Every structure is written in structure tokens, then in C-alpha cells.
Amino acid sequence: MLERVLVIHPTCKTSYSLIKALSTDKSLxxxxxxxxxxxxxxxxxxxxxxxVPAIIVDSEPVYAGPIDIKRAITxxxxxKTILESSSDPRSLAERxxxxxxxxxxxxxxxxxxxxxxxxxxxxxxxxxxxxxxHGIVDEAIKExxxxxxxxxxxYRKAVRNLAYNTxxxxxxxxxxxxxxxxxxxxFLSLDHLALMLEASxxxxxxxxxxxxxxxxxxxxRPVYEYIREKYDRIIDYVTREQEEIIGDEEYLGVLEEKGVxxxxxxEFKSSCLGKE
Length: 276
Hints:
By secondary structure, the protein is α+β, with helices and mostly antiparallel strands. It is 64% helix and 7% strand. The protein starts with a strand and ends in a 5-residue tail after the last helix.
């Protein structure tokens, strides 16, 4: 029997939605190993899981973000379905910006380390495309690189991802302190954001290029401006999203049943949710 592993992050909305769907099938839930990417970095790095949720079959990433919930359930039910997938290189190339923009890691690597660096993570891209054949993945990547439109789309989606995840981080770290854009601007300068996001593109010193300030700030400026322009929309979305996840006792119970840490989630729930 093929070993099926689902890698999640407890506060990821798509991970939440997939766990909710999976929990309706008790036998499948029981058969599926759930790994928390936040608490198991060695596992996720070893298998090159840079996007969650991700499905691992016999130690190989086969399906990752952005995922379709119904398809993900089908893959968990019968992993061979995904291993037989194939498609046209051009249509797959059009999916690559979505794969990059769905991952905090890939987004930050693209912005701070460049296109070549992000495309080096072929296992992640192959899982995101949902295909097994290496040759067709290489063809899709070439189609993507040759298309200025698709590359620019990847950068735009990466900027959006970094903007939203920056506000998620502030929300989790400081509870509901940052209700207004002015609160964020007083706390987080462009330089501080640049250092924070550059750090998110590395692991330890792996991938650390040491950008000079001017280069680092210019790479970060689009993210900072996106936050300033869209802040009300972002904070409203993040607040509703996270309160739904952390306020769902059934979801927390499923995580605990599968051995996923929830202590920090419950601490946040008791200290922050419902408080102004």
C-alpha cells in the first residue's frame, strides 16, 4: 500500500479547507499521515516541500499548491491517479505563476534571488503542475521563461503573496494591534520590511546573497506599496480568514487527533480572538 502523507500549515486557509473536507471521510483521514510543515522543517526541506498543502506519496511530492480540494481528495484516495497525469506544455506553463504565487518560499526566492533560483526547485514545480514526467516539466518551464507575460504575472503574484503573508505575520505576532495602515507605517518601515522578507527567502545562510541596501529596498518596494494601497482589504481578509480557522474547534480537534501541535493556536485563540 502506498504511504500517503499530507503536509499542511495549521493557519493556511487551503490546508484548513482540505482538512475539513478530509475529515468527512473517517477511513481516509485515518489512513493519511498529516505532517505540520511549521513543526517539521527537516522533513519538508528534505523532500523539497515549499508549498502547502502538499501530498507526498512514498516520499515523493506529487501534488501541491495551488490545489483543487476535490482533486486532492481523489489523489489521497487513489494516488496512482496523479501519477498518470500529463498535459500540454503551454497550458502547464500558464500554471507556473500560480504555483509561485501560492508559496511564500517561492515568492520570496523569486523576488530576492531571481528567476533562475526559483526554477531550480523542480520537484516543487512538478508537484504544483501535478505531472510525473520530467521532460514535460522541462518543456513547461521553457515555455514559461520564454513568455514575458507569464514571468511578469509570476512577479505580480509573488508581490501579492508577500504582502498578504506580511500582514498575517503581524496579525499573529501582535494580535489586533495593526487595525489601520497608519499603525503599520509607524511600526514597519520599508527598510525593516526589506530585511524581514529577505530573511524569508533563506534558511540560515543558505540562499543569502547579501544585497546592498539600494538593491534590497528596490526589490521590496513593490510589496510595501501593495500593502499601502490594499491594506484595508488585506487586514479585513486576514482577520476573517484567521478567526475562522482558529475559532473552529472541530478543526483543532482533528489536528490534535493526527498529532499536530495546537498549543500555540489555542493560546492565540484564548488571548486574542474576540478582544479589541
